[in-house]
Amino acid sequence: MAVSAAASAREILTRLHDVMASRDRAQSKLNGVVNIIGEALDSEVCSIYLLREGVLELFATRGLDESAVHVTKLAMGEGLVGTIAANVETLNLAEAATHPDFAYRPETGEERYHSFAGVPIIRRERAVGVLAVQHADPRRYEDVEIEALQTVAMVLSELIANAGLIDSAGGSSTRPQSTSTERVTGFKLVDGMAAGVAVFHQPRIHIEHTVAEDIEAERHRVYAAFDKMRDGIERMASQAEFGVGGEHEEVLETYKMFAYDEGWARRINEAIDSGLTAEAAIERVQQRTRMRMREIDDPLLRDRMHDLEDLSNRLIRIVSGQLGTAAQLGLRQDSILIARNLGPAELLEYDRRRLKGVVLEDGSLTAHVTIVARAMGVPMLGRVRDIRRLIAEGDLLLLDASEESLVIRPSGGMEESFDAKLLVTQQRRAKFAKLKNELPVTTDGHRVALMVNAGLRDDVGALEVTGADGIGLFRTEFQFLVSATLPQRERQMRLYRDVLDAAGDRPVTFRTVDVGGDKTLPYLNHDEDEAEENPAMGWRALRLALERDALLKAQARALLEAAAGRTLNVMFPMVSEPWEFDEARAIFERQREWLGARGHKLPAEIRYGAMLEVPALAESLDVLLPRMEFLSIGTNDLTQFLFAADRAHPKLAMRYDWLSPSILRFVRRIADQARAADVQVGVCGEMGGRPLEAMALIGIGIDRLSITPAAVGPIKAMIRSLNREKLMAHTEALLQHPPRTLRQDLKAWAEENGVELA
Ligand code: PEP
Ligand code: MG
Questions:
Q1: From which domain of life does this come (predicted)?
Q2: Ion ligand 2 — residues with CB under 5 Å?
Q3: Which domains, ranges and CATH numbers included, belong to the chain?
Q4: Nearest residue CA, atom 3 of ligand 1?
Q5: Atom of ligand 1 at shortest distance to CA of 637?
Q6: What is the per-residue pLDDT across 377-436, written as a single tens digit (0 to 9) for each?
Q7: Does pLDDT of 247 surpass 50?
Q8: Which residues, 6 or more positions from 393, have their beta carbon under 8 angstroms from its beta carbon?
């Protein structure tokens, strides 16, 4: 039964194609299939077992007793067939009866056959059946024969799924080899707990057609897809638009290595030669690699395997033209999103009602995607290794970001204790909610202004819920990020007016658009040849706005009109030198004059401010302070520029502490200077939303914080239990002779002095 590799597989597939295209009933098709394979492989027995009601049932056979069809049944893990399905592995045995898992079934009459080879029929990464051949002679099957069987099994998976022959094809896609509960750990990015089913941001494509009609055409499809994929990778490498930061250098290198790997492309071509469609050929090669890798226990290789999986999936998506993310497909139930990394705009595309949590393989605390998740109140765990291997689409997940843990496929008991803990968390939240009407005043009578950061329309409700003093930072770019096209002035105006209406007497500070960096807008792409190597330090925020001044003019008009008759607080992001502030302010002033000249109602007052997040501004602050009404210190960007450490880089996320003397001394100097010039000053970075960090800021004299809404309760509780004067004296002393970080000292001080750190 010698089979010449591709040629025979192709011959089998051509014949299978005719059977599948026929109008026969599914059972007749299966009977046809076993005959074709039996003949082609010159095998005495060929059988198909399919999973029905959780057991593997003999559905068709050539060679075994006909009466055994639909009678012989094996549980998962039972006998050779059950073992193949349970382990999703191939068995190739010269003497079947000597295998420890062999289970003799008299009704089949299989005692005459010695050799046995079986391959799993795989759908959505789990076995849904087994294709087996048997022979009277005790012999091992050749590799090409096994290859041919595996290829046929792939085609069969299409046939049986289309015919609805197996248990709810793909209903639960849990892989049998990983049905057990697993617990993995990560890094807390956004606090909270969530339960939901796993949804991959980039869904796996389900291959509809496996047998090629025209092999040449399939080959061209794969060539074109390879070109497109390589282009994409080159673009990612040059623009660093690969998600938000992360260990992307390393990943990109690996991607490149695979994308240009001749061996990979050749194997896919060979699979196409055997008669598979482009999609099926890519998947077939991937299956083979997966099986081989499973035998190698090397974590490094497994990581690489993961990259290859990613790329292979990407290639299938390109070939099949299915490039959408899970957001476009829509979430159908409470879900936890899984991704290597995400951009803020990608996250905003998801339905907030159903998105309960996010798990990333990369991720860092101040990446904008994290800020957006925090604003959305979606718990997020980062830096979870190996998630694609451990989690299958549809698995139930319990995410506990506060414990930095993720439970995959929990047992009933685990769900119960999770629910119990969730209740406690909700009670804690309720306790903080009760503080809503209490003022953030320290025990020695100092009032701290506690504002919230916002950016989404729904965020305005946070003012009511938290009792905050106002919106200290309204990130206007969020509207741009959620929009498929540039929001027109009228639409911007409506949002700003609604926000001001909802805020009532409470002040709102609008920050002009801060796009660029990790907040890319597809409709505002600059030229490819201007691709940025380092977008965080690139053409972003005010730099972009001053150059594309039509954008800033439109926004100025929208803000001025929205604030008619009220106070408008405008803040410019990423001001590096005073003249940038002056130019931006002049744009607003010209718009004001233009509107005034045409009789439009103007704001009663305009207050201009700048964000201090580029250290250079600190050097010219004395020049700028007399020209501005307020200053807001953006510690997210400031930290990355002060330390020259990418805020989205996971490896650096833990390296520099917000409680390091450099940050605290720097912020203290700025704040002292602003106060001396009688300019209002506050902090609006994520740092202020963490109780210990916020305490440190109060310790250096900051008394105005704008923070994420969920943090208002805990920060208020901290403030209300704090003696500011005593803390300031302690912090001052610490900063004179500072340790590497003030974290331990401040924590101990808080404990000794009864400060409530949630
Ligand atoms: C900051 O940089 O600290 C800040 C508040 O702005 P963003 O996080 O939006 O860059
Ligand atoms: Mg910033």
A1: Bacteria
A2: 613, 634, 637
A3: 5-162 (3.30.450.40), 182-418 (3.50.30.10), 436-519+541-752 (3.20.20.60)
A4: 634
A5: 2
A6: 899 999 998 787 788 889 999 999 989 999 999 988 888 889 988 888 888 888 888 899
A7: no
A8: 124, 173, 198, 199, 200, 203, 204
